[in-house]
Here is the input.
Amino acid sequence: MDFTIIKHAVEVDHGIKRLSMRFIKRYAAPERARLSAELCAQISDEFERIGLTTLPRTLPRSENDFVWVIQQDSILGQVAAVAAVLANLDKMGVSPMPQLFENYPEAKKALT
Here is the structure.
């Protein structure tokens, strides 16, 4: 997996880039016919290793879907990390702000 182009594209666009899963797959595993749950997990791990994260956090398996790729050390990346922690706490039922995600159900779904 060589995500150098993706990493540079994210940096050029000030820490965030919207990409299709088809584009990501092209650099992750061009020889693969389709995205599997295993491949999506490997892509997420590789992104993590090079300092990138995605929204939604769990990558979709459809090549027609789009994701936001975010530089982890950017301000937006840090905000997304904090929001993901809050979403996971809410999912476990121990949120410090219990009603936070009632108005933002799509955000909670993307962050967990």
